[in-house]
Predict the structure.
Amino acid sequence: DNQQEQMNIVIVGHVDHGKSTVIGRMLADTGSLPEGKLEQVRLNCERNAKPFEYAFLLDALKDEQAQGITIDTARCFFKTAKRHYIIIDAPGHIEFLKNMISGAARAEAALLVIDAKEGIRENSRRHGFMLSMLGVKQIVVLVNKMDLVHYSQTVYDQVVAEFAAFLAQIGVEPQAFVPISARDGDNLAFRSANLPWYQGPSVLELMDGFRKEKDQAEQPFRFPVQDIYKFTAGGDDRRIFAGTVETGVIRTGDEVIFMPSGKRSTIRSIEGFNQPVRNEVGPGQATGFTLTTQIYVKPGEILCRGGESLPHQGGTFRANLFWMGKHPLIKEKKYQLKLATSRATVTLQQITKVLNSADLTAETDRNQVERHEVAECILKTAKPIAFDNSRDIEATGRFVIVDNYEIVGGGIITEAFADAGTLA
Ligand code: GDP
């Protein structure tokens, strides 16, 4: 359908199981490499008397990116007839989690790579678990290096059975398993005759089958207020509420509600920055609004649209939280919570479960969360804030926790508790 449709996909897996090779091969086989890049890298290998590897393509592209503007994560782009893909290369699961919870590189779907010869490793499990805890539901598992196991269906079936059983335990049902050889491009962009017993789709076909997360324009309107500018026009005090639209669409004349304050008004004008006057704005657009009445609110409130479902307002919620602070997360301490543009003091109320990401054992009687642990817990902010369940609206259902100016944790909201003062 839409020519410009984009999708973010993360690729994860144990080191050396073939992530970079999958990406390099995919870029080459879809004709997405810059002109002459493949030849240049091959030539370079020849000159240095080392065998060519598709993974080197990625290094070459990264070097190029690094010389331009600074980048936080390595990203590769390729397109199919259906859409553009942005592949997020997660160097390690800590970086991956950081990117996901900060929203820097949110993935809508994932490819998880397992080496057929080496089999399932601790990180294969850990990554599957991370994806589930972050709410990434579309997962395809690539059983790679099938050439090293003589394209054996028996080996493949064993890996699939073992990994599917593990994923089922943590409530994850992958969309598909695919036997591939990334080195040779088998079943990546093209189906392969080396694996005649596999009748399913190629990885690329499966990717084109991933669904876009809910169309952001069709979700309820969410505009976290970043700044408020005051000015006078014709002797009147006016205010511009500035920020970026996360979801939904709004037009001049629409009724709006600030959350959590519940103050109501109507959009008088949509202000662009060096842009022509618009009557309507949607997701991703940085903009400002003036209102028909004088409203006093602070930055951090979420501007919502009348007649649509509103965010929760309160401060007690259940979350899947990933902790990366040097000191453990404890109940006695006050932290700063950042959710969209709001800031609030937050405390840990209860730990329902702590998961050891290495062996995935769960502990239910813990008082603190240690570094690199994942916990299901209940948090409470000191003042009411507006937020969504991440299942409904991702951008306003995710938060980070700051201590001493450093991000020490973050997570997604999985359940809201009714606090006092819920808006009628
Ligand atoms: P990453 O650490 O997951 O990014 O792994 P790489 O893509 O760097 O691959 C690690 C090693 O495995 C490299 O030497 C690759 O050439 C090799 N490799 C990757 N895919 C295949 C494959 O399908 N078959 C074989 N024989 N080797 C592969």
